[in-house]
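Researcher: Structure for this, please.
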Amino acid sequence: MMQEKKRDFDFLLLLVTLTLMGVGLIMVFSSSYVVAEEQLGDRFFYLRRQGFWALLGLGGMYFFSRFDYRHLRRLAPVLVLINFILLTMVFVPGLGLEVKDAQRWIGIGSITIQPSEFTKLSMVIFTAAFFSSRSIKIDRFWSSTFIPVLVMGLSFLFIVQQPDLGSALVIALGTATLIFVAGVPWQQLAAMSALAIPAVGYLAISESYRFKRLISFLDPWADPTGTGYHIIQSLYALGPGGLFGVGLGQSRQKFYYLPEPHNDFIFSIIGEELGFIGAVTVLLLFFVLLWRGLKIALTINEIFGSLLAAGITIMLGVQVLVNIGVVTGSLPVTGLNLPLVSFGGSSLFLTLCSIGILLNLSRHAGEQ
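Model: Predicted structure, token format:
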């Protein structure tokens, strides 16, 4: 009986994931149908595309829940190579797509892929595989910690050039946190932080639009029609929602007031239409998802599996915190979506694949 229990996957994790994805599909339609009908003549356009990626993602989640996660350790170098190939393809004429002065996507027919989403998962797998190697002497920086930091740094530079500083910072923070969890001496972490913080600060102010975003979140009303516009409109959406919201589908901000209502600022629409109760419910669902991921990381008795579960959970948690921080005006606008909920095929597919790995790992929790 005990062996059977060990082989059971984490049903609560699966239930919460499916619930968040379902909420996402509903809210993608609710927040996008106005723009989709007026601009594309099809109010179901974004819902159909999100539904397509959801089905692919469910297939990926099922596959990785059955695929022996130990094989990922051997595949880690290959995944890093694929990561750099994809990041390079973004800048290849005819393959890379430029949207709103950003070149973050690869176009293959009618399908678009955002390589930075693959970077998040590949960095977690590579870092977990690297630090689980018995030959690694973690106290020697140049032969241990330097390697994943170098891979992360190169990925960071590629993504910043797209430009996408928000995704680059999430990958950097997620990888750095996983390195800390792996047990790297604090002296190494302090030295890396001393170098990284000034570098990030320089990137934040080196481009005028980034500097303006950084300043505007402190006082968005100083430039209400310019750099402060996104934050103000997001707060205008959250405010009228009250306790129970104005009603599903009844948002006013999605009528061209709030930019990207189905993507980066979908949580604003949730707060407006479903109110404080709906917004807190979504946050609680994410809390449960992250709790289950951390529990898996703490209970699996194998270094690679434990680091892999921790890394996936950390990367998801960082992205959720940053997105909610932006929407509530607590952080500068970064252009990050909300995992499982926001519109975005690459994000949804790879998030579901990542949770498939967590489900796989949950079946091995407690094994000796």
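Researcher: Any notable elements?
Model: DSSP finds 13 helices and three strands in the chain. The first helix runs from residue 2 to 6.
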